[in-house]
Amino acid sequence: MGGQIIVNVILDTLAPRPPVRPRPPVGSTNEAVRTAWIERTLQTLPAGWRILDAGAGEQPYRRHCAHLDYVAQDVARYDGEGDGAGLHTGQWNRAGLDIICDITNIPEPDASYDAILCTEVLEHLPNPLSAIDEFCRLLKPHGHLIVTAPFCSLTHFAPEHFATGFSRYFYQTHLEQRGFEIVDLAYNGNYFEYIAQEIRRLSGVASQYAAAHLSRADRRAIDQLLATLQRCSDADAGSHDLLHFGCHVHAVRKAA
Fold first, then answer.
1. What's the predicted TM-score (pTM) here?
2. CA gap 176, 158 in Å, rounded
3. 118: which residues sit within 8 A by CB, 6+ positions away?
4. Cα dihedral 188, 172, 167, 27 in deg (nearest 10)
5. What are residue 248's DSSP bridge partners?
6. Whether pLDDT at 1 is above 60
7. CB under 8 Å to 66, separation ≥6 — which residues?
8. pLDDT tens profile 42-69
9. CATH of 21-189+246-253, one of 3.40.50.2000, 3.40.50.2300, 3.40.50.150, 3.40.50.300
10. To the nearest 5 percent, what fractions of the chain are helix, strand and coil?
11. Does 9 have pLDDT greater than 50?
């Protein structure tokens, strides 16, 4: 009897294993989708326009503004480590900024810019509406505002993290009150995509905050759940109304 068990174990070990299926992409495209939208939108701006990249940070979009007169502004306080809470980058390059100042008080004359780009910045401002008011001052009539911010986000860049929940209603209310017409409002992701993104973080968060390491069975369960979320996302019919990564907004300031 014992010999038969050993033989079965050996045969099971030698048996060909099914190929490991790659994880579906659900929950992994947040940044890529946002970047692609920003690049496309920047390309619609006329050559020679003066554009302010407000809260430019490491200026990832400078290279997509080669046809524009690009100016980078940032408060330049974040160093990659912050106060250690939440998510951090470890390093942060603040070189090459054109203007270092508070985003709500930029030392430029009224109507200085044809366009303003502000990506993933509003959540890092104690008073985001004050920044939008400053954009109104700096933009020419018919100037363009390109803005993205998280609808929901984990704590990051702390202590410079003050808000989340920038829904379409935020933009529709506050931009329209300030004389903007929204010409494009795109949702990034949906409920299933967002849940999948956080499930992908589980291993790292469990290790950091619970001193736990996921077993092989845990990882298989995650793979199965991601496959389910991919099927749901493929069939999605509007769950972004409930939850999504963030809105991408292109607005035009009306004439005074």
1. 0.90
2. 30
3. 53, 54, 55, 131, 135, 145, 146, 147, 148
4. 0
5. 148, 186
6. no
7. none
8. 999 999 999 999 999 999 999 999 999 9
9. 3.40.50.150
10. 40, 20, 45
11. no
